[in-house]
Amino acid sequence: MLRTLKLIYQAGKVRLGFLIMACAMAGIAVSPGAPPASWQVLVLGLAVLVSSSVAGAFNQLYERDLDARMKRTRKRAFVTGSLRASGYWWVALALALLVSLAAAALATNIEAAVYIFLGAFTYGIVYTVWLKTRTWLNIVIGGLAGSFAVMAGAAATGATLAPAPLILALVLFLWTPPHFWALAFACRKDYAAAGVPMLPVIASDAVSTGTILAHAVVLVALSIVPVWYGMGWIYLAGAASGGAFFVYASVRLYREPNISHAWRTFAASIVQLGLLLTAAILDTLLLG
User: Fold this and answer.
1) Residues 41 and 27 sit within 8 Å (Cβ to Cβ)
2) DSSP three-state, residue 126
3) Which of 37, 50, 97, 192 has the fewest CB atoms within 10 Å around its CB?
4) How far apart are the C-alpha atoms of 219 and 274, rounded to whole Å?
5) What is 132-165 written as a DSSP string?
6) pLDDT per residue over 250-272, tens digit each?
7) Model's pTM, two decimal places?
8) What are the domain boundaries of the chain?
9) Residues 63-79: tens digit of each pLDDT
């Protein structure tokens, strides 16, 4: 039983789900609207976590043949048969998504539930099914998944169109491509063998690493802007320190495009986003 739960945890990419949940919490934190009650925040967070995990599990279930062609993913549960790819999974994933959407709608509002659905749909269908093997823009458009999580948080406060959450949503949209492109650069042979046209697979080192750097610079600059819309020094410290680290790693990758620096850039992108989201939440909790 414990082993099965572990396999489900891995198949659902639950660690990524916690990051997406943090995006929703940050969306609440930076919004000027009235904050929801604690129980509403908890339900919304769990709904985002479950919907994100559903999308992650759908991704692995749908891509099991593609994953079998990549060294990085060939040991995933649906590839090895540790989790049998039966019709029960499709039903279970659909039900889990419906329950999470209903919970979000009842606890907060329908608008928040719609944004949660759009995030799962973007990653599960738009990115995984429609775009991943067809165009290098796959992860560019797929980057909207994280943005929708931020907007779900903002919708829960009734401040969807406020500048700060819109800017943070744009930051998430710009963050996803360089994060995945750094990974794709490090695993370029894998993606090429699987026929996935990630930017580092189809473009030169100079173009791909230069594009990563450009995205990093723009998103970090944008991440500072919410300070002009009410965010305090804790947010500024997190955005500036994490941003500087990400840009520094991206510069090193551009100057020396190799696998080692690609992995460091990938890690730096996670540190940057983690610091940004944590600082946004702490800024609101501690500074009000």
Assistant:
1) no
2) helix
3) 37
4) 14
5) TTT-TTHHHHHTHHHHHHHHHHHHHHT-TT-HHH
6) 999 999 999 999 999 999 999 99
7) 0.95
8) 2-287
9) 999 999 998 889 999 99
Q: How many other CB atoms sit within 10 Å of the CB of residue 81? A: 9
How far is C-alpha 229 from the chain's CA centre?
24
Cα distances (angstroms) measured from residue 101 to each of 40, 92, 120 = 13, 14, 10
How far is it, in rounded angstroms, from Cα 116 to Cα 67? 26
d(CA 205, CA 6): 37
* Dihedral sign computed on CA atoms, order 129, 58, 48, 239: negative
Q: Please name the residues in contact with 156: beta carbons below 8 A apart, sequence gap of 6 or more.
A: 27, 28, 36, 40, 41, 44, 108, 109, 112
Scan for tokens 């410290």, then name that residue: 237
Query: Of the candidates 267, 175, 170, which has an alpha carbon nearest to the alpha carbon of residue 212?
Result: 175
The helix/strand/coil state of 81 is: coil
Find tokens 């992860």 and name the residue: 139
